[in-house]
Amino acid sequence: MNRLELNAYAKVNLGLDVLRRREDGYHELRMIMQTVDLYDILTLEKTDELGISMTCNIERLPCDESNLVCKAAKLMFEEYNLPGGIKMHLEKRIPMAAGMAGGSTDAAAIFNGINELYDLGVSKERLCELGVKVGADVPYCIVGGTALSEGIGEVLTMLPNVPDCVVLIAKPDFDVSTKYVFENLHANSLTYHPDIDAMADAIRAGDLDGVVKVMDNVLETVTEARYTEITAIKTVMKEHGAMRAMMSGSGPTVFGLYENESDAEAAADAIKKQNLAKQVFVSSFYHPVK
Ligand code: ATP
Question: How far apart are CA 280 and CA 171, in angstroms?
């Protein structure tokens, strides 16, 4: 095989708690992760010439060694002493700096893709060990689906698929840096914590109402407090029948869960009409084949 095209799926956090800030500056998290049917497309092509190179459809995203796609490829080439080189193209569709793990999922697709393209037969466990060197969310993105993510993101417990529903995703027209949000969180003096265990139990019981009841993201206390657009989008989503609307990750993306597509479409139209977000997607949960 010389060429491979693959999808890199975005995630939302159905639950996100921060336990504490460690002395080394990392935060200990407990998150319920879920992939959604919104993806970047990566094309990988072996080359005889040495070297790792990439192109991208988005001008503002650098295609040099700072890109997580290049970092992942470099690590795989070094680790497995691969011959020749590789040319990669990224078609970016996932909103950037949005709390949807766009960069991490691209890196994860490169770990999975190089494993397949070069027929390496590396286990998912080993790919995850390498992946965490590129980013804390990369191990989860390598496996995808529904999972409890702990530690800094490297301790994964797979969960059964969350029951299906319609997922409306809206990214307001500004970026939020993950670093800014964590720096302003004051993790060691939080007065409440989302009930992540209750959510994991609801998922194990296949109980979507139970999931919706305990959806919570502690990072909203920072991002939503600063950007009123987030509250405005949540309000529009709820006015149009969302079971729940919440920010994903460090934001600013907001997602709403719906029982039916027509309500989600109506909410999408209202969000666009009110100029609250341009990047709006009516999507669903994505469950990789196990
Ligand atoms: P997370 O949910 O993991 O916090 P995010 O959605 O907030 O991620 P990303 O879209 O992953 O943020 O990107 C954050 C920054 O990482 C970007 O501003 C960009 O400079 C850099 N980056 C490096 N490689 C990539 C990539 N392949 N795709 C997107 N961003 C990348």
Answer: 6
pLDDT in tens, 81-103: 999 999 999 999 999 999 999 99
Q: Report CA(225)–ligand 1 centroid distance (Å).
A: 22
pLDDT in tens, 115-174: 999 999 999 999 999 999 999 999 999 999 999 999 998 899 999 999 999 999 999 999
Sheet containing strand 244-247, strands side by side: 244-247, 254-258, 166-171, 279-284
Whether residues 270 and 135 share a domain: the answer is no
Identify whether 89 is part of a domain.
yes
What is the model's pTM? 0.96
- Give nearest CA residue, ligand 1 atom 31: 103
Query: Which atom, in ligand 1's list, is nearest to the CA of 177?
Result: 7
Q: Which atom of ligand 1 is nearest to the CA of 56?
A: 27
Residue 148 lies in a domain: yes
Domain presence at residue 87: yes
**Which residue has the CA at smallest separation from atom 25 of ligand 1?**
103
Same domain, 170 and 149: no
- CATH number of the domain that residue 86 is part of: 3.30.230.10
- How many structural domains is the chain composed of? 2
Which contacts of 222-230 are long-range, i.e. CB under 8 A and separated by 24 or more positions? Answer: 222/181, 222/184, 222/185, 222/250, 223/176, 223/181, 223/247, 223/250, 223/251, 223/252, 224/251, 227/172, 227/174, 227/176, 227/251, 227/252, 229/172, 229/174, 229/276, 229/277, 230/172, 230/254
Residue nearest to atom 4 of ligand 1 (CA): 99
Residues in the ligand 1 pocket, defined by CB under 6 Å: 61, 67-69, 96-104, 106, 137, 178, 249-250
For residue 57, the enclosing domain spans 3-158
For the annotated catalytic residues, the residue numbers are 11, 137
